[in-house]
Design a protein that fits this description.
β8 and β9 form a beta hairpin. The strands form two sheets. Strands 9-8-7-6-2-3-1-10-11 form a nine-stranded mixed sheet. It contains three helices and eleven strands; from the N terminus they run βαββββαβαβββββ. Helix content is 25%, strand content 33%. The mean pLDDT is 92. The protein is globular. The protein has a single domain, classed as Cytidine Deaminase, domain 2.
């Protein structure tokens, strides 16, 4: 099954603006997008965004951003109470298709199973932005490994679409 994701252009603009804000000590910002599948599950619609409050970042110079367990617990509670899927989102500066770092992949391998435990019927994953491109990795219900979204579409004006390559596992 191929998977594509769609995000309203206004929501994407809000995410980009939030993630561009400086932090007192974190090198980057992170947030969480919430989704619902559309139709038969091959299309995922991003519906809302939750910013990580300044006080929930933890000092750690070995990573771009480290957040408290409170953040993950609040995302898990939202998944459970609203029956939504959750996607971690952050930015890697530069142009062209961004790539998840080794640290990104390791931390996602820890957090996504937690999301799946409380929302087993929903897709979860991660979205990564560059200055001019967007990619998304999606863990479909029941899957231990992600699929790279074949397309990420920003719906609105102007309509934008980024086509990703298949994940190398």
């Amino acid at each position: 099954m191929t998977v594509s994701v769609r995000i309203p252009s206004g929501l994407l603009a809000l995410v980009r603006k939030d993630l561009a804000r400086p932090h007192a000590f974190a090198f980057e910002r992170v947030g969480h997008l919430f989704v619902r599948p559309a139709g038969n599950g091959g299309v995922i619609l991003f519906a809302d965004y939750l910013s990580v409050p300044d006080e929930d970042y933890l000092p750690d110079e070995s990573v771009g951003a480290k957040v408290s367990g409170t953040v993950i617990r609040s995302v898990m509670q939202r998944i459970l109470s609203r029956e939504e899927g959750a996607f971690h989102v952050h930015v890697h500066e530069g142009c062209g298709p961004p790539a998840f770092s080794r640290v990104d992949r390791l931390s996602l391998a820890e957090v996504v199973p937690s999301f799946q435990a409380v929302g087993p019927t929903m897709p979860h994953g991660a979205m990564l932005l560059s200055n001019d491109f967007v990619v998304a990795d999606v863990w479909m219900p029941g899957c231990r490994l992600p699929k790279r979204a074949t397309a990420v579409t920003s719906v609105g004006f102007p309509l934008e679409q980024w086509k990703g390559k298949a994940c190398e596992q």
